[in-house]
Amino acid sequence: MTITLNVSGMTCGHCEASVKGALKDLDGVQNVDVNLATGKVDVQYEEGKVTEAEMKEAVEEQGYDVA
Ligand code: 9UX
To answer: In this predicted model, what pLDDT tens digit does every residue of 16-38 receive, in sequence order?
Structure first.
């Protein structure tokens, strides 16, 4: 499964790394692609192992907003 999160506030490569790392730490997340320019974060995950709410929370814990 893939979802796209719309994340605001990421402006540099460190931001990108923080968001990517936080998502990849979640059990069930398989791959994360961040587009800094658009704020779109594509997450590939295993259904049933992780929820969209958990992904949003992980990103928000890093200090970024998720639409
Ligand atoms: Mo550099 Mo990204 O301070 O917030 S980590 S812009």
So the answer is: 999 999 999 999 999 999 999 99
CATH class of 2-66: alpha beta
Residue 27 alpha carbon to ligand 1 centre in Å: 26
Domain spans, the chain: 2-66
Q: ipTM score of the complex?
A: 0.83
What CA–CA distance (Å, rounded) separates 6 from 4?
7
Cα(16) to centroid of ligand 1, in Å? 9
Q: What is the Å distance from ligand 1's center to 9 Cα?
A: 9
How much is the pTM? 0.94
Sign for the CA dihedral angle at 55, 59, 60, 61 comes to positive
